[in-house]
Structures are given as C-alpha cells and as structure tokens.
Design brief:
Blueprint lengths: L12 E6 L2 H27 L13 H25 L2 E5 L2 E9 L2 E8 L3 E7 L3 H6 L2 E7 L5 E7 L2 H16 L7
Antiparallel strand pairs: 1-2, 2-3, 3-4, 5-6, 6-7
Length: about 180
C-alpha cells in the first residue's frame, strides 16, 4: 500500500481523480502520425539510389535528421504523458489534494478542506465528452485560492457528486431529500 505524506491520522483516501484515457490516445495518434511521416521520408531517402546528398554508409544526412525527429516526437509524447498522468486529485475524508504537474521536475500541490468548499461544478463539452463521461471539474472554496479546476477528468459527474456528499458530511448538513 502506498504511503501518502499528506494524510493526517485517521484520514483515508476516498477517491483518486485522474485525466481520462482519451487524452492520451489523442496525443499518441498525433505523435504516431508525425513519426510515420518522418520514417516514410527517411526510408524514401535511404532507398533512393543516385541521391545528390552524399550518403554515409548508405544513410543520407537528411535521413539521419528525420530519424532524429522520430526520437524527438517520442520524447515529446512521453513528456506529455508524464505531465498529464501526474495531474491528479486525491479526495480524502477531510480535504482534497490537487497535484498540478507543471513540468517534469516541477509540481504544485494545493490543499482544500472539505468544510471550506462552497461550490462544485462540472461541464462536459461535446458529444465525445458526454459519451465517454469526461469533462472539466471546478471546486470553489473560501480559502486563499478561490478556485481549483482540472480538465478532462474521468467520470466527472460522479466525482463532482462524491465531493458534494463529502462536503455536506464534513459541514454537518443532513442529506434528507423531500
């Protein structure tokens, strides 16, 4: 079981909210397309007999540059994946920890107590977001940071309702429906 240093005594993690998998698929397809174009051009230049560019052991310098672009595309994809995978919200029994991964070696953690939450809202834009259930989640608090938001969150509606229920329990409100 992982150790979370932000947990207080008796506090438990209720939910972990991460970005939807479709974000990664979209970026993977874009990066694969870029790689495919570079590889196709490199293969064409390598296989071309009578090239005006002097080959070095059968590979032209232009093909080497294109292969370098493939490596750059994959590095870019893994940078994107790391940055988005570590954007996460930990929802506990007494507060929410919002982790924002700014760069590979830079992250920001914000804490909000459930008792200070004033409003929770979410929005799904478009047919794809509605079908797959992802969207933008916003939590407004009475603290120094007024609003917390995360885009492309999986099961956004369920997470929003879960946060509202936890807030109501933390504030001592009864969940009696008329």
């Amino acid at each position: 079981m992982p150790v979370y240093p932000f947990l207080k005594d008796g506090e438990e993690i209720v939910a972990v909210a991460r970005k939807h998998w479709i974000v990664y698929v979209k970026q993977a397809l874009l990066h694969l397309y870029g790689c495919a174009v570079c590889i196709a051009l490199a293969v064409f230049l390598i296989s071309r007999k009578g090239s005006t560019v002097t080959p070095v052991e059968g590979i032209t310098p232009v093909a080497l540059i294109l292969i370098a672009f493939v490596i750059l595309f994959w590095s870019s994809f893994f940078y994107f994946w790391t940055k988005n995978y570590f954007d996460v919200w930990y929802i506990t029994t007494s507060h929410i920890v919002a982790v924002n991964q700014k760069n590979i070696f830079e992250r920001e953690e914000s804490f909000m107590e459930l008792t200070k939450i004033q409003d929770v809202s979410f929005e799904k834009e478009g047919i794809i977001a509605t079908y797959f259930g992802y969207g933008k989640l916003q939590v407004q608090t009475a603290g120094s940071i007024q609003e917390f938001a995360i885009d492309y969150i999986s099961n956004v509606e369920t997470v929003a309702h879960r946060i509202m229920d936890l807030r109501d329990n933390a504030q001592g409100k009864n969940n009696i429906s008329l």
